Amino acid sequence: MDINALSTPISEHEMYMRLALREAANAFDHDEVPVGAIVVVNNKVVAKAFNQVELLNDSTAHAEILALTSAYQSFGSKYLPDATLYVTVEPCLMCCGALYWGKLARIVYGASDEKNGYRHFTSSPPFHPKTEIIGGLLAYEAAALMKDFFRARRQ
Amino acid sequence: MDINALSTPISEHEMYMRLALREAANAFDHDEVPVGAIVVVNNKVVAKAFNQVELLNDSTAHAEILALTSAYQSFGSKYLPDATLYVTVEPCLMCCGALYWGKLARIVYGASDEKNGYRHFTSSPPFHPKTEIIGGLLAYEAAALMKDFFRARRQ
User: Under an 8 Å CB criterion, which residues of A touch B?
Assistant: First the structure.
């Protein structure tokens, strides 16, 4: 991440990522893998979601997919060219594909996912060419939630 | 596709793909990009869907995603290890990712998609290692529907 190249001040990105982290904490409290996502358009949060794979018994119910679907419904549009999606963990291939179709302006993610993140599967970013990608924002906080979750499950 | 290696007789695969083609024709009739999908478990159709991106204003509403979500709800399970998904067109990256998470037994697709199909983005199949992939079944019929659709849109 090149902070000098950011078109939005870092503090604003951090503010929204902290809302995404709050969603991730919600997931944690519901015994879901703690991932949260927020969609922001023109400095307004238009959708938020946490991973609900277990609650919905649906392995497509990742935070990003739920947040995107909510934002599409909110806007009555299948594209979000002015939107930024904040997600606490590097998106998987399914979510990258969904974000590709949505043609978002920007995707900001937190912790890397060595096992299921898109970088494990593709050598070049599978996003829309117009989408800006920023990785590693508040990664420590997002990764700590994930580690606590999986440590508790192993006990 | 190596027909001799198929664990299900070709006529059965064809029968289910024709049901998926019927879904694709439904999509066509609703002015949607004509893609249809069917989920089969133990010789029973447990879900069927056609692409509804325009109807739902949701770019995640591909036939495969809708069929998977319907099948998960039907089974009360987030995995479908005994299921075969038939889809008329080569899945995109989003749908491959969704199928990966579902751990399906088999994916059978029809026409290739040179622009948006997963083979355009990845050199190795991004599916679960336990999932069998069969491509090209009734490809001509599926491709003809797509060509007719886009020809009509250009006029």
Answer: 53-54, 56-60, 65, 68-69, 72-73, 76-79, 92-98, 100-102, 121-122, 126
Residue of chain B minimizing CA distance to A75: B57
Q: C-alpha dihedral over A21, A129, B61, A54, to 10 degrees? A: -30
**Complex prediction ipTM:** 0.89
| Chain A: residue whose CA lies nearest to B92 | A97
How far is Cα A131 from Cα A128, in angstroms, rounded to an integer? 5
pLDDT in tens, A94-132: 999 999 999 999 999 999 999 899 888 776 778 888 999
Q: What is the pTM of this model?
A: 0.91
Q: Is A64 a catalytic residue?
A: yes
**Tokens at B29, concatenated:** 């009739």
Measured distance CA(B98)–CA(A60) in Å, rounded: 6
